[in-house]
Design a protein that fits this description.
The protein is mainly α. It is built from 25 helices and no strands. Helix 9 packs across helix 22. It starts with about 30 loop residues before the first helix and ends in a 10-residue tail after the last helix.
């Protein structure tokens, strides 16, 4: 192994998950808006149906109310489009379920097709939410109702009406805080910056840098959600965009501090000031802690971060200094469906494999259930859908354990509620209360939520089929959850279970080549638009690479060591990437002769080939660059980190696709 003097020590990688994590309760704030909103969206239609003597109509409409569960952190403009599409999709899948109820083979085909398309759509458009879960649920409910073509238009219209009501509930916050999601996203970016600043010089640094980069991308997407394309002089949005721009600049300054071996850490009180800005954004009446002046700070990078922090504080307080104008705001490229689909349909994209696996396994689960003629056959593919939201073998195992344990406990609660024989208004109120509790705690632990999901589903089933015994539903539910979970786990083990790890070498090589292109653009004094394009693409690629690594780490317990062997190289690539991104902010000062650019280009290509082929790179002469002195040390670290075969000689190498 070739070693280089002065190479930076590799930071500790992320901790792999364990099976015990299935019962870990996350420390997250309670989701009050989601809890109340979902209770209203599901409970009100049922209540109206009960009061008018048509409980079955109310239950149909409440299915459309599931559209509310797709509310995320997007802007209200984006949410309006998203919820409208979800409501239409739910009504369409319900109609398809009702149409195919008499044809088992068609139901099996549609179960798989709906699951695959939903997963692909949510992944391609990068939309947060429960993905295919409630589309499969709505389709399942449609198949469970008595086959009646004459009732189909009315039932579908009721689901669409419930979806429209859920749309209004989801958009209700716009009346009070029209820019609430954008404000929350920017505040979240400042909180992640505070954690990142505190982590400089510690083993938490890579994780906090990654989280800060993700939050900054989310803030960028939120504040530029399309509105400023025609409202370029709107004060509140200009303020948020200016604060987002400062946050990005502070992130780069913090990265420069971490790369500077003479700057041990940021100025004391920086994290507290960043948190104070975040709190002030969400609570304007709150006093804000003023950051320290930057004039007497000797280190240039620390002084720059302090100056940017003071400018951000001034913007937050509503002062004119540093606010900027609409012309200074750089908007991201406009939405391009062609560009989005070309990336999602790339043969090397993990999304294609995930979507196909999802659709195939759900179709198999439906085929098994209907061939066995189980009591409530549609519960099998529905359970399979729920556990496969884990996306990896370990994640699926977590979901299966959580769903099984939660269902067993929930059956007792469901039996107690059903033993009271609730009718009419009491059914509506019970559904609303259960839905409120589910969404309040869902993100903390799925097993806890399933305890209340189970009686909710039993309540709907009992209300739709009052002639059947309670014991029938309970036994059917327990049987179907076990079969569905087992099929989901088997599917994850058999189909593309190494989709992430097999793509990791090629993805790592792609990021290295991208870094080489960005450096070439910087050294050749390329137009700012070209440098900006490469910078944006590299930022996105670094985040995706980390997501891919996390997926590889969770593919199986037995292969963790092999996946972990890539961490030093990934850590080095991230350091180089963010060093180049900071240099790109002042590209004109880094111009160099063509031969220097050529030397670096050859080096990056050599490292990319070593990563792609999983071969130890040959000794290389790494040229120095006076304008970016840290780069030579970081590239030496990458060269050493890519000697993966030397570290994994005792274990089989990860095969690239």
């Amino acid at each position: 192994m070739h070693t280089y003097p002065g190479v930076r020590a590799v930071h500790k990688g992320p901790t792999p998950g364990t099976v015990r994590d299935a019962f870990r309760i996350r420390r997250m704030p309670l989701q009050w808006f989601r809890g109340i909103g979902s209770a209203v969206a599901a409970g009100v239609p049922t209540l109206v149906g009960a009061l008018t003597g048509h409980l079955d109509y109310g239950l149909c409409a409440s299915i459309g109310g599931f559209a509310f569960l797709y509310v995320g952190s997007e802007t209200y403009r984006q949410r309006a489009i998203k919820l409208a599409c979800v409501a239409l999709g739910l009504s369409l899948t319900f109609g398809l379920g009702s149409l195919s109820a008499a044809t088992p083979w068609l139901m099996v085909l549609l179960f798989g097709l709906i699951g695959a398309l939903a997963v692909f759509g949510f992944g391609a458009f990068q939309m947060a939410g429960p993905s295919a879960m409630f589309f499969i649920l709505t389709f399942s409910v449609g198949t469970s109702l008595p086959y009646d073509l004459h009732a189909l238009p009315l039932r579908t219209l009721l689901v669409l009406t419930g979806g429209a009501f859920a749309w209004m509930v989801g958009m209700s916050g716009w009346l009070l805080r029209p820019h609430g999601p954008e404000t929350k996203a920017v505040a979240g970016a400042y909180r992640s910056l505070a954690a990142f600043a505190d982590a400089i010089g510690t083993d938490l640094y890579p994780e906090k840098r990654y989280q800060a980069a993700v939050q900054l991308r989310a803030a960028d997407a939120a504040v530029s959600g399309g509105e400023l394309r025609w409202r370029r002089n709107y004060g509140p949005m200009l303020r948020l965009m200016a604060l987002t721009r400062k946050a990005n600049e502070m992130f780069m300054a913090a990265v420069e501090i971490s790369l500077d071996r003479q700057a041990a850490k940021v100025l004391e009180g920086t994290a507290a000031s960043l948190l104070s800005i975040a709190d002030r954004l969400q609570h304007p009446q709150q006093e804000m802690q003023q950051p320290k002046a930057a004039a007497d700070i000797p280190n240039g990078h620390v002084r720059r971060l302090s100056r940017l922090l003071n400018e951000a504080a001034a913007i937050c307080l509503g002062e004119d200094a540093g606010r900027g104008t609409a012309e200074e705001v750089t908007l991201p490229p406009s939405f391009s469906l062609r560009r989005l689909l070309s990336g999602a349909l790339n043969p090397h994209s993990a999304l294609l494999h995930t979507s196909l696996r999802y659709g195939i396994v759900i179709a198999v689960a439906a085929a098994v259930a209907y061939s066995l003629d189980l009591n409530r056959s549609y519960w099998v593919p529905l359970s399979c859908t729920a556990v496969m939201l884990g996306t990896t073998v370990l994640g699926t195992a977590h979901r299966a354990i959580q769903r099984t344990a939660g269902t067993v406990v929930g059956l007792f609660l469901g039996a107690f509620i059903l033993s009271l024989r609730p009718e009419g208004i009491y059914i509506a109120l019970s559904m609303a209360v259960l839905q409120f509790i589910i969404e309040l705690i869902y993100l903390r632990n799925y097993a806890l939520a399933v305890i209340f999901i189970t009686p909710s589903s039993l309540l709907i089933a009992e209300s739709s089929h009052p002639d059947m015994a309670v014991s029938f539903f309970i036994s059917a539910r327990l049987t179907d959850i076990l079969i569905g979970s087992a099929i989901g786990i088997i599917g994850m083990l058999l189909l593309w279970r190494r989709a992430s790890s097999s793509k990791l070498p090629r993805a790592l090589a792609g990021v290295i080549r991208m870094e080489g292109k960005l450096l070439e653009s910087i050294l050749s004094s390329s137009p700012s638009s070209r440098v900006t394009t490469w910078t944006n693409e590299l930022e996105t690629a670094l985040i995706r690479l980390r997501l891919l690594y996390d997926g590889a780490l969770a593919e199986s317990v037995g292969r963790r060591n092999q996946a972990s062997s890539w961490w030093p190289a990934l850590d080095a690539v991230q350091h180089i990437g963010y060093a180049l991104i900071t240099a790109a902010g002042n590209a004109q000062s880094h111009a160099a002769p063509d031969e220097a650019s050529s030397d670096y280009g050859q080096f990056f290509e050599q490292m990319a080939q070593a990563a792609e082929r999983q071969l130890t790179p040959k000794p290389a002469n790494i040229p120095a660059l006076s304008s970016i002195p840290v780069l030579q040390h970081e590239l030496a670290g990458l060269h050493e980190a890519l000697q993966i075969r030397d570290r994994t000689a005792q274990s089989p190498a990860i095969k690239s696709s």
